[in-house]
C-alpha cells in the first residue's frame, strides 16, 4: 500500500470512530438523525418511525389504542407510529417478567414495579432519562417542578431517572380507594339506620342474611357481604381502621416502620372478620373470586342481591337499575375500642409507568412524543376521558354525563388508556373542572366532598413512595415472597376457620425465622434515608 492509500485508510478509520462515538453520545443516534429528528415543533421526525410499546390495558377500553381519541391526538402530526403490544391486567405481571428475563425487549415498557425500574436501570436494560427530560420534555419538566415529590419518587438512589410517572396530584386522591358500600334500601326494609360501629354492621348483615331482602320469596339467596381477599380495592382493608391499623405490609408510626401482620391490631381485625365469616355473613367466594367476578355478582340480575361490598365506586360497577340503592360509601366504623381511622394515602402515582429500553433506536423522538401526554389539557383528557369534557369560554371544563347505554365507568375510559399510561394531572386542572354535585345521600369517592368527610379520620401512616437501592431491592426480594405467601395463607385460614389466638405465638416465631427483622430493617433504612434527603 502506498503512502497516499495508507493516509486515506487512516483518515477513514478516524472518521468511522468519530461517527461511532457521536452515535453513542446521547445527542441523537444515526437512526434518529436519518429520520430527520427535530428538537422542537412538528413533525418530531421527517420520516415516519415505528415504536413498539408493551403494557397492559383496562378491559373496558380494549386494546385498539391507536383508535382512542387521546392517542390519536398525541400521535397527530408527529410521524411517530405506535405498535401496541398489550396484555390483560391479570396476565401483565407474568408477561412483563418474561419480557425482562428473555431480553427480547420492546422499545418501551409500561407499568413496571419500582424494583424492576431500578434493577433494569442498574443493569443497563433501561436508559437514563434525566437529560432527555431536560432537553425534550418541557411539559413533564414543568410538572416535576410543580410537584418535586414526583421527581423524588422517580429518581433512583444512583441519581438517575429511568422511568416516567403516571401521577394524579388531586388532593382528593389522599382518600382510600377501598370503601364499604351498603344497600340503604335493605337497611330501610330491616328498620335499621346506617351502621356507625362494627357491632351495628354485624347486626345489619345478620338482617340481610335472614330476611327476604330482594322480595323473591326466598330468604336464603341474599349475600350479606362480599369482597376480594387480598385486593387493595375490593378487599377487606376498610375494616382494619376500626381496629386502629391499616391493611398495608408496612406502616410508619412516629418514624418507626411497623410490619402490620405481626401486630395485635391485625390479630383483632382478623378475629372480627372470622366472626362475620363464621356466621355466614361474608360470601365464601370472597376468599377466591377476582374483581371481575365480584363486579358481575353485584351487577347481575334485575334486583340487588348483595347487601354490602368493598369497592372504590358503586355507581360505576353496579347495575344501572339499582346503583343508587347503595347511596354513599360508609364513614369509617368505630371499632370495639372506639378506633375509627382511614389512611391518608400517598397521592395516586405509578413511578414506573414508562421506561425506554436500550434497544430503542429513537430515544429523543420517544421522549418528545411521550411529553405530549404531559401537556396539562391532554393529561386531563387521559385522566378524565375527552368524551366527558366540554371546554367552556372561561377556561373551565364541564362534565358530560354518561349516556344511558354506558355505565359511568365505561364512559370514562371509552377514549383513554386511563391509568395504564402516563399523565401528569394537577390540582390546578382539577380545580378547572365543573364537577357534578353530590345528591343528598349519594356521596362518591370521586367527589371532593367525600375526601373532606374523611379528613378527620385520616392517619398519615402509609409508607411513602420511594425507590430503594438495587441492593435493597435484592434484600427485599429475598424475604417478601415467602413472608407474603405465609401471611396471606395464615390470614385466609384464620378468617375462614379461626384459631388465630391459639396459633399466634407460633406464627410470630415462624416470621422471625423467615427473617422478618431484617426485612423490616430494609424498609426502616429506606425510610430514614428518604427522610434525610427530604430535609436537605
From TrEMBL:
The keyword Membrane applies. The keyword Hydrolase does not apply. The lineage of its organism: Bacteria, Bacillati, Bacillota, Bacilli, Bacillales. Pfam families: SBP_bac_1 (PF01547). It comes from Paenibacillus favisporus. Keywords: Cell membrane, Lipoprotein, Membrane, Palmitate, Signal. This is Aldouronate transport system substrate-binding protein. Residues 1-27 form the signal peptide.
Amino acid at each position: 500500500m502506498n503512502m497516499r492509500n495508507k493516509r486515506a485508510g487512516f483518515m477513514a478509520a478516524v472518521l468511522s470512530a468519530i461517527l461511532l462515538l457521536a452515535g453513542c453520545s446521547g445527542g441523537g443516534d444515526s437512526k434518529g438523525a436519518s429520520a430527520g429528528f427535530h428538537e422542537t415543533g412538528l413533525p418530531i421526525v421527517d420520516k415516519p418511525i415505528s415504536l413498539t410499546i408493551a403494557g397492559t390495558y383496562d378491559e373496558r377500553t380494549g386494546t385498539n389504542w391507536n383508535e382512542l381519541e387521546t392517542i390519536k391526538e398525541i400521535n397527530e402530526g408527529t410521524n411517530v407510529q405506535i405498535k401496541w403490544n398489550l396484555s390483560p391486567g391479570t396476565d401483565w405481571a407474568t408477561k412483563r417478567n418474561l419480557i425482562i428475563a428473555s431480553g427480547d425487549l420492546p422499545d418501551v415498557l409500561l407499568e413496571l414495579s419500582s424494583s424492576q425500574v431500578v434493577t433494569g436501570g442498574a443493569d443497563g436494560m433501561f436508559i437514563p432519562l434525566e437529560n432527555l427530560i431536560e432537553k425534550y420534555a418541557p411539559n413533564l419538566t414543568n410538572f416535576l417542578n410543580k410537584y418535586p415529590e414526583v421527581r423524588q419518587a422517580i429518581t433512583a438512589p444512583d441519581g438517575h431517572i429511568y422511568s416516567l410517572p403516571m401521577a394524579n396530584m388531586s388532593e382528593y386522591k389522599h382518600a382510600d380507594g377501598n370503601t364499604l358500600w351498603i344497600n340503604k334500601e335493605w337497611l330501610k326494609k330491616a328498620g335499621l339506620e346506617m351502621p356507625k360501629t362494627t357491632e351495628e354492621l354485624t347486626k345489619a348483615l345478620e338482617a340481610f342474611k335472614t330476611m327476604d331482602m330482594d322480595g323473591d320469596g326466598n330468604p336464603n339467596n341474599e349475600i350479606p357481604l362480599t369482597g376480594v381477599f387480598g385486593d387493595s380495592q375490593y378487599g377487606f382493608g376498610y375494616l382494619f381502621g376500626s381496629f386502629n391499623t391499616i391493611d398495608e405490609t408496612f406502616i410508619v408510626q412516629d418514624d418507626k416502620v411497623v410490619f402490620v401482620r405481626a401486630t395485635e391490631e391485625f390479630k383483632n381485625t382478623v378475629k372480627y372478620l372470622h366472626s362475620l365469616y363464621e356466621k355466614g355473613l361474608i360470601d365464601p367466594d370472597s376468599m377466591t373470586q377476582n374483581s371481575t367476578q365480584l363486579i358481575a355478582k353485584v351487577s347481575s340480575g334485575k334486583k340487588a342481591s348483595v347487601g354490602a361490598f368493598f369497592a372504590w365506586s358503586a355507581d360505576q360497577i353496579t347495575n344501572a337499575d339499582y346503583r343508587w340503592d347503595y347511596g354513599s360509601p360508609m364513614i369509617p366504623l368505630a371499632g370495639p375500642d372506639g378506633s375509627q381511622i382511614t389512611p391518608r394515602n400517598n397521592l395516586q402515582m405509578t413511578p414506573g409507568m414508562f421506561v425506554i429500553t436500550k434497544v430503542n433506536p429513537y430515544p429523543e423522538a420517544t421522549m418528545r412524543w411521550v411529553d405530549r401526554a404531559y401537556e396539562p389539557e391532554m393529561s386531563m383528557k387521559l385522566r378524565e376521558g375527552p368524551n366527558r369534557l366540554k371546554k367552556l369560554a372561561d377556561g373551565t371544563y364541564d362534565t358530560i354525563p354518561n349516556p344511558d347505554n354506558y355505565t359511568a365507568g365505561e364512559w370514562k375510559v371509552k377514549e383513554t388508556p386511563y391509568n395504564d399510561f402516563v399523565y401528569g394531572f394537577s390540582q390546578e386542572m382539577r380545580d378547572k373542572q365543573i364537577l357534578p354535585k353530590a345528591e343528598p345521600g349519594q356521596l362518591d369517592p370521586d367527589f371532593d366532598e367525600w375526601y373532606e368527610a374523611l379528613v378527620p379520620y385520616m392517619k398519615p401512616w402509609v409508607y411513602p413512595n420511594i425507590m430503594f437501592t438495587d441492593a435493597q431491592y435484592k434484600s427485599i426480594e429475598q424475604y417478601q415472597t415467602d413472608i407474603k405467601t405465609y401471611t396471606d395463607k395464615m390470614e385466609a385460614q384464620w378468617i375462614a376457620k379461626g384459631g388465630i389466638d391459639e396459633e399466634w405465638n407460633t406464627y410470630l416465631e415462624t416470621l422471625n425465622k423467615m427473617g422478618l427483622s431484617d426485612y423490616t430493617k430494609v424498609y426502616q433504612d429506606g425510610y430514614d434515608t428518604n427522610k434525610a434527603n427530604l430535609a436537605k
